[in-house]
Amino acid sequence: MMPRRTLAVPGDLTGFPATRSPQRLHRVCRAEKGTWWFSSDMSGRFDLRPPEGTCYFATDDYGAIREASRLGPVTPAWVSMREIRVVPGPPRARLAATTREAAARFGITNELATMIPYSLPQRWAAALRAAGFDGMRHVPRHDSRARPGGVSLFGRAGAAKGKDGARKPLTALFVEAAGVRVLPPPDSAVLRIVK
To answer: How many domains does the chain have?
Structure first.
């Protein structure tokens, strides 16, 4: 029986495959917030430690909805408080191409996008940043299409200046078309209180 191969700890990343950003990036945001937020609280899969952070995008609306909702279900209030932003991808960004065949030589697998806890994916993000990458292309965890539809950009932690891009309202119909159920919260009369 062959031993099971798992995602390796990042080592020397010299020659790791690179790619450019897609022309458009999609993100589901709270309507009152800006598009560009670089997370550094280590709650995100590829968060970097301060003073840097990671801003998460998808390559289309479908992927952005599935990732932001984590496949739900979500409430109508969740939907009404959010919108989709579409921004141009940074043209000079050098992204780590984690889904290319050549990436496997460095011990990386698509498990990077699904494993919990996030400590090893965060180590990979930090190693890729240290190797000079501006972000990474990857398979999003909640997108069943098995393609590199996720883009995580690295930058200074917190809010960043940048155009918010085109704004599209999020509707229940749009969210459900992405395979996420929109359900009202249960009525308190049907809840059983356990002490």
So the answer is: 1
Instruction: Find out whether 182 and 76 touch, Cβ atoms under 8 Å.
Output: yes
pTM score, whole prediction: 0.89
- The model's pLDDT over 132-160, given as tens digits with 9 standing for 90+, comes to 999 999 999 888 877 889 999 999 999 99
Per-residue burial over 164-173, b = 16 or more CB atoms within 10 Å of its CB, e = otherwise: ebeeeebebe
In sequence order, the β-bridge partners of residue 88 are 24
pLDDT tens-digit map of 165-189: 899 999 999 999 999 999 998 777 6
**Residue 154's closest CA among 57, 70, 67?**
57
Residue 193 lies in a domain: no
Domain, as residue range, for 70? 18-178
Phi, psi (rounded to 5 degrees) for 177: -65, -25
